[in-house]
Amino acid sequence: MHQEEAKVLWNRKVGPEYYRIGLTCEGGYSNARPGQFIMLRFPGRITPFLRRPFSIHQRILADGRTTGIELLYKVVGEGTKILSEIQTDDVVDILGPLGNGFFISNAHKDIYIVAGGIGVAPMVFLASYLEERGINPSRCTVFLGGRSTEDLLCRDDFLRIGMKLHITTDDGSAGDQCFVTHPLEAEFDKRRPDIVYACGPMDMLKCVIGIAEKYAAPCQVSIETMMACGIGACLGCAVERKGASDKYMHACMDGPVFDADMIKI
After folding, report:
1. Phi, psi angle pair for 121, to nearest 5°
2. Is the CATH code 2.40.30.10 the one for domain 2-98?
3. What are phi and psi of 100, to 5 degrees?
4. Residue 227: phi, psi to the nearest 5?
5. Is the peptide bond prior to 201 cis by the omega test (within 30 degrees of 0)?
């Protein structure tokens, strides 16, 4: 874990409410894992008082070395509104990499990746990491869902890596008009994957977990939750544990990625 002031390389609008911001990072991120996150604050500002959590979207590489990270974010409140106004060469304070990421095994060949809305943020890192590990991208299928075509992000990233892509929207403006879990279950009927990775709204994750349990497939989910500290001090990001006397875990320390059979959501 490193705390440092990171210079902004770019802050690009990629949709009506969505941005990608690139940050320089001096150390610690070469070993970052997909699903890990950073806590960000704005030096010299009184508000917002607390840091904000952001998944690592991608690593920035130069000559095979990690020189920075990219975040994908949606403007939803005061913190992200201020972040959207940050300019190139400005400085933000980051703490990371934090948390536990997705468990990757070379024994997993057939992989389903499920992302809903801004839940796609850690999944591009995951997709590129799988490719780096020598896993055949053509055996990986991505299920990408959003409210409308404006909420479908990173399609080209997955296609460039060579993964198959299923697209759904709530309003039918792109892909199939249905929940993203509908084509997921249809694919399960054809072929049970070695593992499912998912990130998105809680209702989506509940459904993904239910499908994985029905077909007895391993499943890991990244929980989207607000965090005040990111290091286990405030205990504000509690996640209920299944069937244990120690009732709760915490997303910042035990997650944000959990095995689906460990948690109750």
Report:
1. -50, -50
2. yes
3. -105, 135
4. -130, 140
5. no
Residue ranges of the chain assigned to CATH 2.40.30.10: 2-98
Write the burial class of residue 53 (CB in 10 Å: 0-12 exposed, 13-18 middle, 19+ buried): buried
Tokens, residue 260: 């689906």
**Do you know the residue count of the chain?**
265
> Would you give the end-to-end CA distance of the chain in angstroms?
28
In a structure prediction context, what are the per-residue pLDDT tens digits for the chain, which is 265 residues long?
A: 889 999 999 999 999 999 999 999 877 799 999 999 999 999 888 778 788 999 999 999 988 899 999 999 999 999 999 999 999 999 999 999 999 999 999 999 999 999 999 999 999 999 999 999 999 999 999 999 999 999 999 999 999 999 999 999 999 999 999 999 999 999 999 999 999 999 999 999 999 999 999 999 999 999 987 777 887 778 778 888 987 667 888 898 999 999 999 998 8
Topology adopted by domain 111-262: Rossmann fold (3.40.50)
